[in-house]
Amino acid sequence: MKYAILVYETDAALDNRHSPEYWGAYRAYGALLGERITKGAALEGIDTATTIRLRDGEQLVEDGPFADTKERLGGFYVVEARDLDEALEMAAQCPSVKEGAVEVRPLMEMPS
Amino acid sequence: MTDAHAAAAQMAARDAYGRLVALVTRRTGDVAGAEDALSEAFVAALERWPRDGVPDNPQGWLLAVARRRHVDQVRHSEVQRRLAPALQLVAEELSSASSPPDRRLPLLFMCAHPSIAAAVRAPLMLQAVLGLTAQQIGQAFLVAPTTMGQRLSRAKHKIRAAKIPFKPAARWSSQLHRDRLAVVCEAIYAAFTTGHRHVNPHQQGLALEAIWLARLVHRTSHQDPETGGLLAMMLHIEARRMARRDPQGRYVPLDIQDPSLWDRERLREAEGLLWQASHQRRPGRFQLEAAIQSAHAHRAISGRTDWVAIEMLYRELLTQADTLGARIAHLAALAEAHSAEFSYDRLLQLPKQATATQQAYWALRAHREHRLGRDPCASASWAMKLSDDHAVQAFLEERFGVERGVNPESY
């Protein structure tokens, strides 16, 4: 069973991204999960985001992220877990749980 | 067939149904699918067993009917295809074992998973294990049946889609087991208190269903002291149902109820459970709550309420579960046991925002003001405004001389 671990971070954490502690924590997390991670990526800051919508045939392009929230989506992992409990255990180790938050969602099976 | 026989037959149907939902869910991880596969057979059992008697093998009967319908209708949905092998496996399990295993505790643990919203846990347990409808559950929880139905199906969808595990008890660490058991107890207690929201004492809400669930959990958790405490507390409160109103339907507070109206059999059972729990030397919130109820019940023998003991028990309870309700009840006991003035001062120090909507706070405050020779009218009219029970309103009106319908802010 595959789950997405969505990493939401505070602005303070995102501002701290160039520090060795920040990457050290995520490297350690990545090493802890090891082969259970099937995919994952860190995202550039929200000042690089562009949101696009199609309304009444018109394409609307806007600067900024889709939702302006206090915690920003900073990256994600796709992991392999036996069940929700195991996925939650993995998510609970993520560095952003302390100040930001982590959302766990099962991956949907695409209908064939 | 008498009413009692009919009720027993209905309970046998619910018992067999819950056991089967657990056995099927264990195979599929899908509560909604298990309920769906068994629902028609369950409805048939609810209708026939009270009339024709309970079959020798209730689970076998239900499963056979469910599988027959399953084949008859040749349903081709994804869910049905997944279910057929599970039903087959459960049928084999039933025929091979002389007494099939009871897996309802892991099912209850699944319903009480922390990722399920707290307010849905009790409804989910009542539906999966007792087969109550969204209509019945909604009525008891004062939620529109369609809203309740939506909440239940959303939770069941999450159980399947997010794969909330169905874990056999042996795979739980003892700490996790206790934590989850506490959540299950809380959900059962939430179902029990639905009985108190009903104005008429003959309307029991889901009090009896909650007691039934607590018995099940107590038995399947190997007599955990806290499940024993929960069951004892609920039996104590249930024992006093008929004493809570006088023959004219007026509200009678606990300390002046006629103990001869209390249900002796329930009290005896409650006392036995509490005694047994206390011997395990692992005190907890529900055992303390049961001990408080037990101290009140002791008035039937001693003729007086031991407020000193009750005050101490509340103090201990606050170290285990610090809730506003427990703090208010503690101050009520403190006033009776020791100093009325001191208790009143502490009452005024409780956080204003939280107490504003607490009926028990305003009722106690009016009571204390009355005793201390102050004007209780403003507090009493808040207490009246916050109660939807006419008998309680009439009681406050009579005791404190407040007029009904007066805006409390005008005092």
Fold and architecture overview:
The complex is a heterodimer of chains A (112) and B (411). Chain A is an alpha+beta fold and 112 residues long. Chain A is 24% helix and 37% strand. Chain B has 411 residues and is mainly alpha-helical.
How would you sum up this structure in a few lines?
Chain A is 24% helix and 37% strand. With 112 residues, chain A is α+β, with helices and mostly antiparallel strands. In chain A, strand 3 and strand 4 (58-63) form a beta hairpin.
What would the keywords be for this entry?
heterodimer; A: 112 residues; alpha+beta; 4-stranded antiparallel β-sheet; two-stranded antiparallel ribbon; 3 helices; 24% helix; 37% strand; globular; B: 411 residues; mainly alpha; 21 helices; 69% helix; elongated
Topology pattern of chain B, helix = H, strand = E: HHHHHHHHHHHHHHHHHHHHH
What is the structural class of chain B?
mainly alpha
Distance between the termini of chain B: 59 Å
Instruction: Specify the helix fraction band of chain B.
Output: 55-70%
Overall 3D form of chain A: globular
- Give the strand content of chain B: under 5%
Shape of chain B: elongated
Measured distance between first and last alpha carbons of chain A: 17 Å
